[in-house]
Design a protein that fits this description.
The structure is a homodimer. Chain A is α/β, with parallel strands linked by helices. Helix content of chain A is 25%, strand content 26%. Chain A contains ten helices and 16 strands. In chain A, the strands form three sheets. In chain A, strands 1, 2, 3, 6, 7, 15 and 16 form a seven-stranded mixed sheet that branches. In chain A, helix 6 links the parallel strand 9 and strand 10. Chains A and B meet through strand 12, strand 13, helix 8 and strand 14 of A and strand 12, strand 13, helix 8 and strand 14 of B. Strand 13 of chain A pairs antiparallel with strand 13 of chain B, so a sheet runs across the interface.
Amino acid sequence: VVLAVRRAGICNTDLEIARGYMGFQGVLGHELVAQVVEGPAGSAPPADWAGRRVTPEINCACRGCPACTQGRGNHCPTRTVLGILGRDGGLAERVAVPLSTLHAVPDSLDDDQAVFIEPLAAALHAFDDVDLTRKDRVLLLGDGKLGLLIGLALAARRGQLGQALAVGRHPDKLAILAAAGLEVALETDFDERGSFDLVIEATGSPQGLTTALEAVRPQGTLVLKSTYAGAADVDLAPVVINEVRVVGSRCGDFPRAIAALENGHIDPRPLISERFSLNEAERAFARAAEPGVIKVLVDATGTEP
Amino acid sequence: VVLAVRRAGICNTDLEIARGYMGFQGVLGHELVAQVVEGPAGSAPPADWAGRRVTPEINCACRGCPACTQGRGNHCPTRTVLGILGRDGGLAERVAVPLSTLHAVPDSLDDDQAVFIEPLAAALHAFDDVDLTRKDRVLLLGDGKLGLLIGLALAARRGQLGQALAVGRHPDKLAILAAAGLEVALETDFDERGSFDLVIEATGSPQGLTTALEAVRPQGTLVLKSTYAGAADVDLAPVVINEVRVVGSRCGDFPRAIAALENGHIDPRPLISERFSLNEAERAFARAAEPGVIKVLVDATGTEP
């Protein structure tokens, strides 16, 4: 189906791809809310989707290989990924996606909320494959675009934890998490060692991994949300000596993100720093890369050629 | 209690410590079988232990801190570790250890078997925190001292797995694993990617980690048994992109290792390369570091001063 894009967000993966990560050439953009306007080859869209507001999954799987049939479609070896791998993304007036990737956006969510469905799904996924108990102490490292969303997700379950601390570099960004109910600390003031049951690493830098390995308790869990372009010079001996469980975490479940937005448990709109029109996309990218800027949105309505 | 050492093994950790790892100064040796001969300050040993053949746990925990009371004594922050950290080890005529660390060696096990209890416990621990099913494909990387023991442990559960493959550098060492029932392959012939449910990395080199990350399937498990002295220059982006679960694994459960030796499921004696007397300990270390040599044993009986 062909979608008319309404709004798209810029994330750090987009910025890294623009610098050469993944070797992608094509249209960027994988956080979007859009409207179904066309079927294949100019045909009418399926009647139950026509005109609806949607957000597409970013992984487009073959649906036939062992990974797909075993429920790991996000890891299909021949997948394309919207705006990341072998498929044009949504920083455009229109974008073509498989019908199977669509999720309807409930009327109760505005476009500003809906554009966060994809990154919020990834943020919530940080807590999958992790058994948290009421006494557990959780540390979030990183107050960037993804780190702040994970922080809001962490704040939503604050009451079920022994401690929930976010450590970052920017007082103004940490203030958003403090307002949501997290304990916060500046990186320069933080030196706790070996005491956190769960550490979520979302700094986007190899130094964050070293800090995370120091902060996690023996036999604790470290969730990695950062991808680094290139090799990291990190001493991994503590993983073995302290028997740490390191879990890589990427994309998440869209319906759960939609539900968290709908029931009001998470409101990501305070993260919006600035808006641009699609014609200003290059300026939007430059702005999104500036320190202190959180989420930059690109509005594609009214820019049809 | 004071133990009269009968036999001790040399492992790669000993060799690394001799090169400066851990900054340990003292008597090496943490794989041993010994006899209880004395209590504290020259007193008689407890009657139920006097004269018994034993092997001691290597971690000597405080038994009072949160880690200890929560069942993680192996990770007690003030622990000493036999021959590794703050406590003289068993490459000696006699060694003093806490009574609480002793495990009785059954009469049915000879000294050659009993000296493997500690490293076999560590090898078996590679399969803890891992749920294996009948269809699972398991890859072991490394045919060194620990790798071969893990290989024997893997062979013992071969019938419960879809595939069990060991990849190494030495045809003669891999032959031991083939005889035990594993599929084997030389590293130079191996290039499978993204297909193993569980990969156990026991090569002792950073290159092994890179190979392991290539071989494990998305959302699969990678068990790290190697410690490297110093930082490793490894690209960790695949951990996140493929959502791999990396589990560090160190010491294991002694009673389970004793049971596996007793019931004959695992016989490590084919791994014994050579024997030295305690007076020849330096030669034993030089030999243990030579390529192709597996387990070097040091006999301490008959060397009382």
